[in-house]
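This protein record is not my work; I was only asked to verify it. Would you go through it and say whether the fold makes sense for this chain? Here is the record exactly as it was handed to me.
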Amino acid sequence: MAQSTFVPAKAVAGKSRWPRLSNRRSAACDDDAFVLRAGSAGDLQAVYALNRSCFEEYWSVGSLVSALESGYDLLICEQDGELAGYLLTLTVVDEIQVMQIAVAPSFRRRGVARLLSEALVAGADGIATVTLEVRLSNIPARRLYAALGFAETGYRKQYYAPNAAGICEDAVLMDLQLPS
């Protein structure tokens, strides 16, 4: 597969779902201090690299650029300037759809996905529902979402493209109803 060249996006106008996070420090674990902040076009090169390393069906640079330009929200979690993880969401009226959540392999099992998910819920002013899809086989993610209050609401049969073994995996639909 040919290596893609990163093309920076133009500045993205508009407001972020996480304006109050400006470089908020959080201790997810005793010795891990992570910084949460709203992402921007300047983060897309690192986001793209992490996206490719985490997902068989990764988004292209163009798709990530288009997402930010069309109003998706990007939440960055970093430690000492290194991207630990990110959360990409789309808000439609009173619902947030989690499009992607990714954690760098070196930061897994350190509370990054939980921190990003909790920040999403904390910043969900005026939102009734948060929805997401997760691979049926991704048991750790499903457990995390259940612990955060998400309920499994259905399945999308053979949702994901065939893997190396030619198997199309189902997606589990989950949602979190937020208090009004």
Residues 1-15, 18-31 have pLDDT under 50 and may be disordered.
